[in-house]
Amino acid sequence: MIQNPTLANSDLYMQSTSATRWTTLTTLLLGVTHWASWSVIVVLLAKSNLSLDPSQLMLLVGLAGVSGAAFRFVGIFLGRLLNQWKPAATNLLLLGLSLLSWQAFSLFEVSYVNLMGLAALSGVGCMMFAPAFDLTRRDKETERLPMSMSLVIGMMIFAMFTAQLIIPFLSTWQADFMQSGLILERSSGHFFSRVDAGQPIMLSTISAVWMFVFAAMALLSMGVAWLSPKKTPSEKAQSDSQLLRNAHVWYCSILYNMTFGSFIGFAMVLPLVLELVFGYSTLILVWMAPFIALLARPFGRWLAGIFGGAVVTQISLLLMIVFGAVAGWYLYLAQNDTAELYFEPFFISMMGLVFTSALGNGSVVVTMTKVFPRAYTHKVLTWAGTVAMLGAVYLPFRFTIALESQSLDLVFVDFVVFYLAGVLLNGWMYLRKHAQFYNP
Fold first, then answer.
1. For residue 228, which of 85, 77, 26 has the smallest C-alpha distance?
2. Strands 188-189 and 194-195
3. Is the separation of the CB atoms in 359 and 300 below 8 Å?
4. Are 308 and 427 within 8 A, CB to CB?
5. Could you tell me the pTM of the whole model?
6. Mean of the per-residue pLDDT values for the chain?
7. How does pLDDT run across 314-329, given as a tens digit for each residue?
8. Distance from the CA of 365 to the CA of which of 163, 248, 303, 372 falls in 20 to 30 A?
9. Element holding 189 (H helix, E strand)
10. Residues of the chain falling short of pLDDT 70
């Protein structure tokens, strides 16, 4: 029997696509976890004998935020050049960065300039978001598209959860061949136990683990890319410039930034803010924020499917205003009184802010599926997610400025005003009955 060559090529393509999908999503998860680990590293540095001031520490978070946003933007364009080699190239870059980190953290005198360089390169793995969203385009004729998109979006939340749960544990693990000049001057801890002052901070161990992981992934990704067919089925290109001329792309991107961007920003800065203001062993608790977001986001999507995306988004934004105002008030009291008295109400209000922002993000995605044709939804989400990364840029630098004036509570005034503008935007564009895309 003569085999149909077209069918044979199609089967080969489907197999290679499955392997490429796995390496793409795994590289994305690991790369974002590597980037999110800086939310923990800065807290460990704050507890160490390196004697960095609060502004220097927050600047490192800001550099990591800029790195994540910049590399995510670069990934939109670079992916078109690398094709099936995207995961391999990203893993090789992360392997090189992990090697540099291991060398820097193995020194007995850790340089702040080196820390700045490592933070500024930490977001390399965020390049994989655009390729991951491109995978959903191939499912556009099936019902799997919304689930595929949710998987990619949820990976960032899960990556932050993984980083804030596992990295504190790895920082206490000292192998015989590892060394460190960083020592805990204040007690720390992780999910499993408390760590007393005087113990070494093993950032070199974290880097060594990353070296092993990214080396294995680089080899695997290169093998998949080598065996993948050089040509893939042609797909009609969609013009980014035409898409960005659609005003609703920008409206939805702003709402996406208010919800998902808020979560990203607060998840990155909250561990350090708690450490600087309350001096508490925050690494025992901070993983709770992304864990709550993991539960809230699909819940928001489910509610939006019942009551409408814009309605759930509106309620979420209103609650975000309340929780943001409450968090700012307790932070004000903490700065002007005995800070420990206000830790619990501030932390609870921040968890409420994280929950409602993730809830609103799930509903914004539902709104997008109502506003844009399915074939374009992955493109809109790629762009909106890139815009949302500005949350990880704005918040650290805004807190850096606030630290100099000792007015951290004013940061929340910015966000209350921002969320109020979101209520007006969402209400006018998607809840007004005669609007173009009325989406109750």
1. 85
2. antiparallel
3. yes
4. no
5. 0.90
6. 86
7. 999 999 999 999 999 9
8. 163
9. strand 188-189
10. 1-16, 79-80, 136-148, 176-177, 229-241, 438-440
